[in-house]
Amino acid sequence: MKSLEYFKGCLIGGAVGDALGAPIEFMSLDQIKSSFGNEGLTNYSEAYGRIGSITDDTQMTLFTAEGLILSKVRQGYQGDAGIISAVYHALLRWLYTQETGRQEHLIKAYGTCSIIDGVLTGHKELFSLRAPGNSCLSALQSGKLGTIDNPINDSKGCGGVMRMAPVGLMYDDAEKAFRIGCECAALTHGHPTGYLASGAFASILSRLISGETLTTAIDDSISILKCNTNNEETLRSIDTALELADKAIPGPDIIAGIGEGWIAEEALGIGIYCSLVAGDNFKKGLLLAVNHSGDSDSTGSITGNLLGALYGIDVIPENWILNLELKSLIEETAVDLFDQIK
């Protein structure tokens, strides 16, 4: 198991990628170049009223982490079911930060513990709308807990993948990380690709944090995926990323061959591709991951999670960490996750 610096690298790296992509999330590549020059965005730019703003990707990652941490308290008598329940209630707390007018409804439906468990709702900065995904909002608003056997919808948006890093950090058993990742994603995304891509991402991070190389971690995840039905889209996207990483000079036109990242398998594929071609050059990987016509903050976040878990926090440019919104809280969350597995 790697040290705390790699846990910090994973969560801080993901948040940095999220913040880099935030101002250009809904821009085409031509629009990005028109605004920032031919090289595209090369540093933080203002979004949501400040430099280094996180989006819903990091918000939901933090709440997922909090759910996993709190699940340890109950795991002795609730088992793995307690993990999913704790993450679900943590996501309801995230929903509360997005829709404060729903507090009375949430208390009536789920009990006060849904609101007051944990500490994240004590941070006023999280009470901010940062372009939350419709699938996440509608699934959590429904009052129903989505599962693999009883899907909440047919969505395969990337909202499951982009929040799944804490699962990979928490479980050093890649198969368990995969399974828990799938179940946590299915809370809001019912399409098989929506949760299988999320499980694959969690399993890759689990192997990375255990000390494996990126290629070995990806190969292990592919082996796990092949044991699951409805895996075709996710496997195809990973295979495409691997093929492109071997063949071509990196660039936005190559990323377009994988997709735009709005859906789960494309976001995962882009993150894998950018991480493979970056090597240990975190800045190169992140700028590649955000400068394309697509879901820049999510693909930046996934790439940052992967490279941070692989190389640790020291590869992240210091000025990007310094100006990152909620930097201290994200680091504290990484410490809390690490403390659960020591």
Query: What shape does the CA trace take?
Result: globular
Count of DSSP E strands?
A: 2
Oligomerization: single chain
The end-to-end distance, rounded to whole angstroms, is 9 Å
C-alpha-based Rg, rounded: 18 Å
Q: Indicate the CATH topology.
A: ADP-ribosylglycohydrolase fold
Largest sheet, if any?
2 strands, antiparallel
User: Mean of residue pLDDT?
Assistant: 93
Order of helices and strands: HHEEHHHHHHHHHHHHHHHH
Instruction: Provide the domain count.
Output: 1
Named CATH architecture: Orthogonal Bundle
Helical content (DSSP H or I, runs of 4+) = 55-70%
Short description:
It comes from Desulfobacter hydrogenophilus. With 342 residues, the chain is mostly helical. It contains 18 helices and 2 strands.
Explained architecture:
With 342 residues, the chain is mainly alpha-helical. It has a single domain, classed as ADP-ribosylglycohydrolase fold, CATH 1.10.4080. It is built from 18 helices and 2 strands. The chain has helices at residues 4-21, 29-36, 56-78, 80-98, 103-110, 113-116, 134-141, 165-170, 174-185, 192-209, 214-225, 232-247, 252-256, 264-278, 282-290, 296-311, 318-322, 327-341; strands at residues 46-47, 50-51. It has a two-stranded antiparallel ribbon with strand order 1-2. The protein is globular. The mean pLDDT is 93. This is ADP-ribosylglycohydrolase family protein. Its cofactor is Mg(2+). Belongs to the ADP-ribosylglycohydrolase family. Mg(2+) binds at residues 55-57, 295, 297-298.
